[in-house]
Design a protein that fits this description.
Helix 7 packs antiparallel against helix 8. Strand 4 and strand 5 form a beta hairpin. This protein folds into two domains: 155 residues, no CATH class; 153 residues, no CATH class. The chain is built from eleven helices and twelve strands. By secondary structure, the protein is an alpha+beta fold. The longest helix is centred in the middle third of the chain and has 46 residues.
């Protein structure tokens, strides 16, 4: 193997290892992505009279308040729906996204960034802190006007890395910075800077969002994928359901295929070598029978037969494990299997169903899903290049072992 080929293989191996580690860092959370509801301006919403708890006459005009926003109504209906799905979900929360939102420091400085509104439990991993603290669950529940920003936004707005306690203006509404996180830009981030705030604070400030993702932590072994995907579709249709565990598995799937193909190639060599060794043993035994009695050679024959059986068993066992690893993804992606395996019509139907899922006209995806999809493409390219570079060394190894075409196998003496 040349030095250039070896260096390229080492580089691709490092890329494959890094991508595999990155793809495995996300928790097994489900995400249901759908457009945020269209909000009516607060001043245009009618006032609702507030009655007391005893159901008596409405309160005076000055105690009336605006009707709930569309987002508030949706969150209320989600809470009711999750009570029905409590048997399949351990916890849930909502992240609403407002991309390209205008942010300022209360003065002349201003930038655009991705604003994420949190509601309920935060199930996705948080970036490590550089200063301050993360959002408290109480602040998320109350909708307090506080924010956690990343270092890129802190430098762009305040020219310092620790602006904790300063004012952050989001679309003209004041928030207080309580924390700064180290969040390097990844493949799933369309924007360089981001801020995280309670969703209730965005609702109170009248700041609209474009997309919301309902994050669900499933109960293990409860068949949660089918139950939660159907439950979310019944709650609000038109969304896209993702499993981060499945997307992470998909991102590492090219590596599984590469390893299985390498294993099959290795078994093809070991089977040929085992067959050569067995033929050599048989030939050597025949030669000894010409000069010695069979009774004396019987123990040696038994040992050689046992050795041949072990070689065959090891190869067949390795082949079984590799084929099992190739079939294993079907258990994670049962939608890949046609209803009738040998029916062309069912195979074609399954193919177009999968293409429809992969190529929707309008796709709603969280940054985590975008990141995993990018890692899948990167893993596919790296594994393809790695396998292509191994073709020539594999052929050279076959030639050196005398397994190439036109070469007679050597006999063991």
């Amino acid at each position: 193997m040349s030095i250039k080929r070896g260096a390229a293989l080492l580089l691709l191996a490092a890329v494959i290892a890094l991508v595999s580690l990155q793809a495995g860092n996300l928790p097994g959370v489900f995400s249901y992505c759908l457009p945020s509801p269209h909000e009516m301006p607060r001043e245009d919403r009618k006032l609702l009279p507030a009655a007391d708890e005893a159901g008596e006459a409405p309160a005076p005009e000055e105690t009336k308040k605006p009707a709930p926003t569309a987002m508030e109504e949706r969150l209320k209906s989600l809470k009711n729906k999750m009570e029905d799905l409590s048997g399949t979900a351990l916890s849930y929360g909502v992240t609403a996204y407002a991309p390209a939102t205008n942010l300022g420091d209360g003065g002349s400085a201003g930038v655009t960034a991705l604003v994420m509104g949190q509601w309920g439990n935060v199930l996705l991993p948080k970036a490590p802190l550089a200063a301050g603290r993360q959002l408290y669950l109480e602040e998320i529940a109350l909708g307090s006007p506080v924010a956690v920003i990343d270092e890129q936004l802190a430098i762009a707005l305040y020219r310092v890395g620790d602006p904790v306690g300063r004012q952050l203006v989001i679309s003209g509404k004041p928030f207080t910075v309580v924390g700064v996180v180290r969040k390097p830009r990844t493949a799933g981030d369309q924007e360089e800077r981001r801020a995280e705030v309670p969703l209730g604070a965005l609702i109170k400030a009248g700041i609209p969002t474009q997309m919301m993702a309902v994050n669900l932590l499933p109960k293990p072994g409860s068949g949660a994928y089918a139950a939660l995907s159907q439950g979310m579709a019944q709650w609000q249709s038109g969304g896209t359901f993702y499993s981060l565990a499945k997307e992470s598995y998909r991102a590492r799937l090219p590596l599984r295929i590469l390893l299985c193909l390498m294993g099959l190639a290795a078994i093809s060599l070991t089977l040929r070598l085992s067959a050569r060794a067995i033929r050599g043993l048989v030939h050597h035994s025949k030669r000894r029978l010409q000069s010695q009695y069979a009774a004396r050679l019987l123990p040696g024959f038994a040992g050689k037969a046992l050795l041949a059986l072990m070689l065959i068993t090891l190869n067949l066992g390795a082949l079984f494990l590799i084929l099992q690893a190739l079939v294993a993804p079907v258990y994670v992606f049962p939608e890949w299997v046609p209803a009738i395996l040998v029916e062309p019509r069912e195979i074609l139907k399954t193919f177009w169903a999968l293409r429809a899922q992969a190529t929707p006209l309008i796709a709603l995806r969280t940054p985590e899903v975008l990141r995993l999809q990018f890692l899948h493409r990167l893993m596919t390219l790296a594994c393809t290049g790695f396998g292509f570079l191994l073709v020539k060394p594999y052929g050279t190894l076959r030639q050196r072992l005398g397994l190439g075409k036109g070469q007679a196998p050597s006999r063991m003496m």
